[in-house]
Amino acid sequence: MGKLLAIVLVVIAVLSAYPIVTHMFVLPEDISTHGRAIDQQLHDTMLEAGLSFVGAQIVLAVFVWGFTNRKEGSPLKSFPGGAKVAVIAAFVLVGTEVLALGVMGQKAWAQVYFTSPKPNALQVQVQAEQFAYYFRYAGPDGKFGLIHPDKIDEGNQNYFGLDPANEVEARDDIVSGELVVPVNREVQLLMHAKDVGHSFYVRELRLQQDFVPGLDLSLHFTATKIGKYEIVCTQLCGLGHYNMKAYLNVMSEADYEKWLKEQAAQ
Amino acid sequence: MRTKQVVVVGLAMLVVAAAAKAGPPAGGTISGKVTYEGTPAKMKPIDMSKEPSCAKMYTTPPLAETVVTGAGNSLENVVVYISAGAPDDAVPSTAAVFTQKGCRYIPHVLAFQVNQEIKIQNEDQTSHNIHPLPKINREWNKSQPPGTPAISEKYDKAEIFPVKCNVHPWMHGNFAVLKNSHYVVTGDGGTFSLPNLPPGKYTVTAWHESYGDQSQEVTISGSEAKTITFVFKAKPY
Predict the structure, then answer these.
(1) CATH hierarchy code of domain B87-180
(2) Sign of torsion, CA A222 A224 A226 A227?
(3) Whether residues A78 and A105 fall in one domain
(4) CATH, residue A207
(5) Chain B closest CA to A266's CA: distance in Å?
(6) Using one digit for the tens of pLDDT, what is the confidence trace for A22-39?
(7) CA B35 to CA B75: how far, in whole Å?
(8) Three-state DSSP state, A101
(9) Taking chain A, what is the end-to-end CA distance rounded to the nearest angstrom?
(10) Which helix (H) or strand (E) holds A112?
(11) How would residue A72 be classed by pLDDT, with cut points 50, 70 and 90?
């Protein structure tokens, strides 16, 4: 029975590794400038974890095979050094693995989170609420009007609480349900949540950011491919969470300018 | 000569008796038109891209319905009702119907009476969660998946308040819970007519969700028709 278990262990390990090694599941296309570094990190992690996993299973199978069917009364052999050696070995092995991954991946992380956006990045404000995202552009004057939470009136399409009657900067602000950006141009998202926790996730951009109520968060990215991509909420926010999404529409620079003009005219 | 006078008086008495037997007179009517002056805010198209099952029902995105205007500066969706001078009426047995269709509320303003049943239907392929926002009535919200039966509710206090959908932020409507049966919501053209008013001194109130409310006093002494107009000041934002 023991030998059968050893065989089963090896079979399971190999079968688990097979889909990964043969790339049966392909990552979604990468449309961002930092995506490559993140995908590389994913690949490295999978490789390292995969080798460790298969290796550990094979070692386990070897021991199971070798020490099964012990004869009654024969002396028990203990691992040289006992438990202490095993624990230290585990610390060293796992510790090195995690440290290596962290060191190798810090550049990818830093590219997304520790660099500032370029000064001329296109700023778009993102508000997450139950259960939609709304996006605000500064309009022709380049300035965002102030937000007045007491003036929020969704039935009248005033999602941000702008006061165009009394503030000139707010009059030309463009509010949209779609995040429209020009291709190959750095975009800075100024994010906040209106009510509860949400999360902004665009898998093709390799970007995910939780919206914590009360925090003003910022992300920046450059989209490299024209198309329509889904933004989904990945933080449970209530009964409409399953339905909460918006679309990222990456357009050519010319189309983007045209879209801006159309929105301003409304 | 005397006989003729007697006959005339006798006939007159018969007519009066017949009129008295026929019951009280049909009553007066207050009618008129609701208009605005100034520039109303431009209604923006609604972006329903997050709900494709509703977005595809429109060839061009529909406009928000906060201020709906018509020819001759007329104002739609104004609730015109008798706020004083008329006694409370019995609760009608028919229900007022509020429909969610194309991710919008139809009608935009639903007027009905205190304790009258309202039926809320969902004709869309998506779930809605209707959330009326009264201040003095009991506040509630109810989920309504597609294909489920109508929600039946009623309100026991007179109040006018907004209605929203917790799932779709752009959906917006209003409930007007009124004490008597003398009310009308203006449609295209902004006209209204309140018939069957017994003689008395009435206060007619016109309410608009963005422009507030105005009242006028009208006295009906018989079965005449009186015409009044309401003019609201439009705001550009």
Answers:
(1) 2.60.40.420
(2) negative
(3) yes
(4) 2.60.40.420
(5) 6
(6) 888 889 999 999 999 999
(7) 5
(8) helix
(9) 76
(10) helix A82-113
(11) confident
Is the Cβ pair A159, B167 closer than 8 Å?
no
What average pLDDT does the segment A157-174 reach? Answer: 91
Q: What pLDDT, on a 0 to 100 scale, did the predictor assign at position B1?
A: 61
Regarding whether A251 and A170 lie in a shared domain, the answer is yes
Domain extent listing, chain B: 25-85+182-237, 87-180
How high is the pLDDT of residue B12?
62
Asked if pLDDT for residue B237 goes beyond 70, the answer is yes
Query: Does residue B10 have a pLDDT over 70?
Result: no
Higher pLDDT, A257 or A239: A257
- Determine whether the interchain pair A246/B64 forms a contact, defined as Cβ–Cβ distance below 8 Å: no
Fold of domain B25-85+182-237: Immunoglobulin-like (2.60.40)
pLDDT tens-place string over residues B22-70: 545 478 999 999 999 999 988 989 989 889 899 999 999 999 999 999 9
Q: Which residues pair with residue A129 across a beta bridge? A: A132
Q: How far apart (Å, rounded) are the C-alpha atoms in residues B179 and B192?
A: 18
Q: Do A157 and B164 touch (CB under 8 A)?
A: no
What is the domain range of residue A229? 122-265
Residue A48 has pLDDT above 60, yes or no: yes
Three-state SS sequence of B210-229: CCEEEEEEEEECCCCEEEEE
CB nearest A266 (choices: B44, B126, B162): B44
pLDDT band for A74, please (50, 70, 90 cuts): confident
**CB-CB under 8 Å, B42 with A155:** no
Query: Residue B98, Cβ neighbours under 10 Å: how many?
Result: 22
Of B44, B50, B235, nearest to A132 by CB-CB distance is B50
* Helix spans in chain B (H): 2-21, 52-55
**Beta carbons of B169 and A132 less than 8 Å apart:** yes
Residue, of B153 and A89, whose pLDDT is higher? B153
Q: Over 90: is that where the pLDDT of A108 sits?
A: no
d(CA B95, CA B77): 20
With CA atoms as reference, the chain B residue closest to A244 would be: B50
Rg from Cα positions in chain A? 27
Q: What is the largest CA-CA distance in chain A?
A: 93
Q: Report the complex ipTM.
A: 0.75
Q: If contacts are CB pairs under 8 Å, which of residues 94-153 in chain B contact chain A?
A: 126-127, 129, 143
Paired tokens of B207: 């309410």
Instruction: Write the residue in A133, A154, A171 that is nearest to B170 by C-beta.
Output: A154
